[in-house]
Amino acid sequence: MIHQPVEKNNMSRNNFFSVLKHEIDRIDKAKTSKRFEKIITGFTKEKSPKAIIGKEKYQVFNSNDYLGLRHHPLLKKAEREASEIFGTGPGAVRFISGSLKVHLDLEKSLAKFHKRDDAMVFSSSFAANLAVLYCLIAGQNKDSLVDNNVIVISDALNHRSIIDGIRVANLPKEQRAIFKHLDPSHLEAILESNKKIYKRALVVTDGVFSMLGEYQKLKEIRKIVDRFDKKYENGVLLVVDDAHGVGIAGKSGRGTEEIEGAKADVLIGTFGKAYGADGGYVASNQTIIDYLRESAATYIYSNSIPPGTAGAALKAIELLDKPVGKKLLKNSKENVEYFKKRMKNAGYQFAADSSHPIQPVLIGDPVKTSELVRKLFKKNIIVTNISFPVVPKGRDEIRVQISAVHTKGDIDELVKAFEEEKGINSL
Ligand SMILES: Cc1ncc(COP(=O)(O)O)c(C=O)c1O
């Protein structure tokens, strides 16, 4: 017999539920609730698929699927084929029931793509960040030979998964430092002032910052890290989460590393954005990957991605170096430039001069920004508004994300919609 929870008004846990309800009310009143999501029931079959919401079709300008690969027939075929061979789910974690060949093929292909010794696949790049940071900052149990005699230095605008990875490692406050956003000289000052205190340092940053489409100054950071490596007994490691860069940034889609001409020691990526699939990965030298396979809890005790998804991701990597991928990368760059030029002609400004598909249209006021997003939605266009505290006050923006499969006509329609709503500035 299954025992149901007793639901009576006098149960003490109702007090806790009441606290939770008040917390939800507080979030709703602050207008920061995220749970009222749009429900997409399907996509149209066009070259640049529109999202179907209710009875309407919407042009999607807020997706990380920068190359349009999630709707690509070759990825769908690869997904189906892998599911036919391996089933729809992994069955168990890898150390229990074995690795599926498609996961190993994907890891080999990633290592080759990023020119690293090896790579490993995680259920998400959030899970990869948690593991990489926890495992490289601290030993995983009392027998571990890895100590936490380390200073961790993180860019001020790093992604939540990096922040949480550092939190999980539970270092004392003085061993966690933040360098000013995109300010390598501040990073340098922090490395300098800690060099006699800690045995090693770990520098961690996003490759692309997703609110403005900015690239981290990886080349400068790489040089600083290498210079300070000799000044710390156990060196300095550079960890880069390039979730928005891999697959799309650079001439061949190798990411921020290609844009900047500098490499990370540990590279984290996601399949859930430009590759059009899902899941995360880490690429690095053999020692780091072997150590992570022995210590990363989100890899050892959590399932890998479904085989179909791995098959789709593998196909995406393969396509990037083929004419079809090269054409998509070229289209992406042309579309971005076309959009920027047209918006500037329409009198709009950008919050940053980004060459990434993330294009931050500066509005500068939270009410006007959300009103404009609402108006564009009425014109069947989906974009995202970003306001304080995610960006500074007065830098409210509409984040437009341009895809390689958007047609010039789609972009024209978007710009026309912005032009028609120009009066928003006089609200
Ligand atoms: C920089 C960065 N890291 C990690 C993630 C998480 O990616 P995933 O969906 O693979 O967990 C994101 C997604 O927004 C991101 O922007």
Architecture overview:
There is one protein chain. By secondary structure, the protein is an alpha/beta fold. The chain has helices at residues 13-29, 73-86, 94-97, 101-113, 125-137, 160-169, 184-194, 218-229, 256-260, 286-295, 297-300, 307-320, 323-345, 366-378, 408-420; strands at 42-43, 51-53, 56-60, 118-122, 150-155, 176-179, 200-206, 208-209, 214-215, 236-241, 266-270, 280-284, 349-350, 358-362, 381-382, 384-386, 397-401. The chain folds into two domains: 34-63 and 325-426, Aspartate Aminotransferase, domain 1 (Alpha-Beta Complex); 73-320, Type I PLP-dependent aspartate aminotransferase-like (Major domain) (Aspartate Aminotransferase, domain 2). Strands 4-12-11-10-7-5-6 form a seven-stranded mixed beta sheet, sandwiched between helices. The protein has a four-stranded mixed beta sheet with strand order 1-2-3-15. The chain is globular.
